[in-house]
Structure formats: structure tokens, C-alpha cells
Amino acid sequence: MNLSRRCSKTACRQPAVATLTYVYSDRAAVLGPLATYAEPHTYDLCSQHATRLTAPRGWDVVRLATDFPDPQPSGDDLLALADAVREAGRPRPAPEPVEQGPTVVAGEVRRGHLRVLRGSAEG
How does DSSP classify residue 90? Predict the structure, then answer.
């Protein structure tokens, strides 16, 4: 289970435990366990929002799961975290300084970090 998937409800920061899909032809909202992958047109919900879910008038709510356990980190999550920590701790060589001499363009006047280019009308 991926701990990085959060509830789709605005301003909710809780981890997702259920997935909501709509079957428009049957006028049904289907709430089931958290899908393996996030899909377009589905909504991930935390346990609080999943248990309080209501459907529009005339629609049915089909609950494929009624118990929503708290998500636990999987082996993939722990390996990804370990790889990220290892990569962050790996020493990186300092970039070699690039020396560039000042480029001089005819008709250019330098003022600090700015430069003024004289146009054809200016003399």
C-alpha cells in the first residue's frame, strides 16, 4: 500500500484507504478497498470520508468493503525510502568553475551587472 496517496477531498491530508468510482449507467457510487494504482476518474478517500460517503438523490452506494484498516508501509515503500536516503547521503563532486572572460560587443557600455546597447539612432 502506498503511503504517499492521500485523500482526494480538498484540504484532507489523511492517507487514502478506499477508492471511489462512479458507474453512471447504473447510477451507483462504488466504494471499495484502495486500488493498487491511482486511476483517472477514481477518487481515493481516507477512512473518515469513506465511512461518511453519501450519494446524490436517486443513486445507490455499493460498499465492497466496510472495514478500512490503517495503511501500513509496504516493502516497496521502505525500499524507496532507503534508496532516497542513500542517494541524499552520497557525496557529490563539486562542480568545476567555468571561467568566462567578459564578452565585449561593439557599442556596449557596462554599468555593473547591466549593459546598455547603443542603437543605430544613438551615437
Answer: S
Cβ neighbours of 41 (radius 10 Å): 6
Query: What is the total residue count of the chain?
Result: 123
**Separation CA 19–CA 8 (nearest Å):** 10
Q: Are strands 18-23 and 43-45 parallel, antiparallel or unpaired?
A: antiparallel
Query: What does the pLDDT read at residue 1?
Result: 45
CA dihedral 111, 114, 116, 117 (to 10 degrees): 130
Strands of 18-23's sheet, edge to edge?
43-45, 18-23, 28-33, 60-63
Question: Do 73 and 3 meet the contact criterion of CB atoms below 8 Å apart?
Answer: yes
Tens-place pLDDT, residues 34-92: 888 888 899 999 988 998 999 889 999 999 876 776 666 666 667 777 788 888 888 87
61-94 b/e (C-beta count within 10 Å ≥ 16 → b)? eeeeeeebeebeeeeeeeeeeeeeeeeeeeeeee
